[in-house]
Amino acid sequence: MMEVYLGADYRGLEKKNSLLEFLTAQGFKATDLGAFEYVEGDDFNDPAVAVAKNVRENPGSVGILICDSAHGMTIQANRFKGIRAAHCDSTESAVLAREHEDANILCMSAHFLDEKAMGAIAMTFLNTTFASLERRVRRINRLDEREDYD
């Protein structure tokens, strides 16, 4: 079973905890990388970095990040070579992120999505595989062409 790393800031804490329980009940090995307590105004950066590093270091794993808008988490995670974080707000966008871009981190908005929608989007993301057409592989490989990555 695929390993899933979860992270959230204070705005996504409760929904992350709920999603963690849901994924564990579905049989996924789900690891919580924080936040672990509600600290108003905490930074989204720390859990996004923790999830991105764990996904990068554990091939075949994926991550799920939750913050208010999902924008900050997505931007932070994509700073890491080999990470393809996608902000998804529907099951359809989750399918495209996995099939077309081989996304390995799902980012969701705690503000705009309820727990039921998050569960459906996460399950779609986790159960969709990359359609590795030559043009898609070529485009994905070009994402890491920059020389200033860590």
Describe the structure.
The chain is α/β, with parallel strands linked by helices. It has one domain: Ribose 5-phosphate Isomerase B, Chain: A (3-Layer(aba) Sandwich), CATH 3.40.1400.10. Helix content is 44%, strand content 16%. It is built from six helices and five strands; from the N terminus they run E-H-E-H-E-H-E-H-E-H-H. Strands 2-1-3-5-4 form a five-stranded parallel β-sheet, sandwiched between helices. Strand 4 (85-87), helix 4 and strand 5 form a beta-alpha-beta unit. Helix 4 packs parallel to helix 5 (115-127). The longest helix has 13 residues, at 13-25. 37% of the residues are buried.
What would a concise description of this structure say?
With 150 residues, the protein is α/β, with parallel strands linked by helices. It has 6 helices and 5 strands, in the order βαβαβαβαβαα.
Q: What attributes characterize this protein structure?
A:
5-stranded parallel beta sheet; 150 residues; Ribose 5-phosphate Isomerase B, Chain: A; 5 strands; single chain; 44% helix; 6 helices; alpha/beta
